[in-house]
Design a protein that fits this description.
The structure is a homotrimer.
Chain A lengths: L7 H19 L3 H5 L2 E11 H6 L6 E3 L2 H14 L5 E15 L3 E14 L5 E15 L2 E11 L13
């Protein structure tokens, strides 16, 4: 009941999915990272203010794996930017079964950023409000929504959160 | 033995209790948040220096759910303050069975703070030294003690940690 | 499969090992902390740049428990330094069985630092790339390698990460 109807196997598999997500993302290993999403995935990065007031405006909003792939192509090939390292900490998972839609997964996150020759700093904090689905025994992100606390993001948001 | 005598079910239920705690607290959803405590709970926020030297002085010290409720009433109704968002990360749980007193739960925590129109910053770090009890199959905080690392807290401490 | 062949018992024991590691290290309780390592352990703290380019240079590199013990003796007895508190958050574990060598364990970490009379700040972030072994039912670090994101470390690195 407290475990909200989620089997232990699903729980472990979902936490592993997040561990893989942050490992690949922080290593900028984008090709396998994209494969953690289903084809018709939703990916959003949105300010908490907008989320809570019901405003649709998001800093990033992709509605398919193809759009996400385009963004990654932009980052790695064409988009001019000063590179930085990211380091994610994702904690305190709440996992609920959604009969029609897999699993609803919420978790707090912190992303630190390190630019070349600079100290590490807090970059972005917030809450993931995700949906995870199981396909043939493996788990994937159907929706990933990062709802961030600060309206300000240092410089612009280049890499996925 | 390494698992310190704690059943897997209790472990999951206790980690879920913390996940619920931070979700509700960071969402400022105080009414269900208070219901995570037992009636005669202890809630303290105390500097590590004072804790280690055995000094009783605490930044916040409440000795019942009623006192905690008063504080929340103050925050939400009367206490003049500049609002800010909190984001908790609670990690690396150590859970031990205490035959007379439920479970002793320690964990490291980090709270980030975001003020309107400002960047997110580290607000408070420390260690929870808590006691959790099971009542009719549900888990509650009997003691929550946040032992924080810095004698300085940016501005004053408004919201619970 | 997603759990990468790691039994639930091993998983719990390994996460407990890390919880004990950070609890003891942040409490500066070094004597039991050292006992979490095997005798011929490797302990390294190394910049991500050097790691990714295959350079051997590390900020700290110890090749036995004896060397680690010497370092701790230096910190607690002879090394002149301004003390500070550390607070570790270690999250998003990836654990894999390595038939010849126990378990390969990777995890993201954040260390915050608090100096006397100052605010808490982000000190160091990175990734542990560790090897853990089981001896007589207990788990120990055979290799602990902290690969950190910033080439800059505020002042010098005194305490272990």
């Amino acid at each position: 009941m407290l475990a909200m109807g989620v089997s232990l196997d699903a729980r472990i598999a979902i936490e592993d999915l997040y561990a893989t997500y942050v490992a690949l993302l922080d290593a900028r290993d984008y090709d396998p990272w994209i494969e953690l999403f289903v084809e018709d995935c939703v990916y959003q990065v949105k300010a908490r203010e907008n989320e809570e007031r019901g405003f649709p405006l998001a800093a990033l909003a992709f509605e398919s794996k193809g759009m996400l792939r385009d963004r990654i192509f932009g980052i790695t090939n064409t988009l001019f930017h000063e590179p930085y390292y990211q380091r994610h900490l994702v904690t305190n998972f709440r996992i609920r079964v959604d009969e029609r839609a897999g699993y609803r997964v919420d978790a707090n996150y912190l992303v630190c950023r390190t630019k070349a020759g600079e100290l590490t700093e807090v970059y972005n904090t917030g809450r993931f409000r995700d949906r995870v689905v199981e396909l043939d025994g493996a788990f994937f992100f159907a929706e990933k929504r990062a709802i961030y606390d600060s309206e300000l993001i240092p410089n612009s948001l280049i890499y996925p959160i």
